[in-house]
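Ops channel
N.P.: pipeline sanity check, posting one input/output pair.
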């Protein structure tokens, strides 16, 4: 398999206009696609040439309760924050300055040893982090583990471990590969 990045993260909003103002106009991410009908919108913002963040707008969606990044919770929970990579610390300070000028709470620049980060929240109270690499540090090239009590699975190392899942005995033959139409095809239709 050849992964290219996160095609898109799909979030929810009750106020698409405020979401557009924040992600497009404040953060500078292009609005590259929009789908909609009464009671529903699905808009996509370009983070990078490979990555997007998308928002569904549904009637009745309210902003999340504010929760600080990485603070433990109990009960059903699946999402903590979105971390968006930027080129360098100059980009971090530009984002920090823009958020501060727009009166959004934003943290100081934090040194995590391998990345520098700033933290904030969008108008939907989605926790967001912006991070850049620390010069000379590359944990992807040199994976590191500082967990004092790693599980046995963790101790197996950074690389995918073969034989842990059933193997594919019958790949889908070319003659059986079908792609079915779905929502979004109207973006390519000629407008009249």
């Amino acid at each position: 398999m050849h992964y290219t990045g996160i095609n898109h993260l799909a979030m929810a909003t009750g106020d698409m206009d405020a979401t557009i103002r924040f992600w497009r106009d404040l953060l500078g991410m292009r609005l590259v696609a929009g789908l909609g009908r009464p009671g529903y919108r699905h808009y996509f913002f370009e983070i990078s040439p490979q990555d997007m963040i998308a928002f569904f707008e549904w009637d009745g969606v309210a902003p999340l309760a504010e929760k600080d990044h990485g603070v433990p919770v109990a009960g059903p929970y699946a999402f903590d924050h979105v971390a968006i990579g930027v080129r360098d610390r100059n980009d971090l300070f530009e984002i920090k300055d823009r958020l501060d000028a727009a009166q959004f709470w934003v943290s100081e620049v934090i040194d995590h040893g391998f990345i520098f980060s700033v933290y904030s929240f969008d108008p939907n109270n989605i926790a967001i982090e912006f991070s850049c690499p620390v010069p000379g540090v590359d944990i992807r090239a040199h994976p590191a583990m500082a967990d004092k009590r790693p599980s046995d699975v963790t101790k197996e190392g950074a690389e995918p471990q073969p034989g842990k899942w059933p193997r594919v005995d019958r790949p889908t033959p070319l003659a059986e590969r079908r792609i079915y139409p779905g929502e979004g095809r109207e973006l390519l239709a000629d407008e009249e």
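N.P.: looks fine end to end. Strands lie at 8-13, 31-37, 40-46, 52-58, 82-85, 110-111, 115-121, 127-133.
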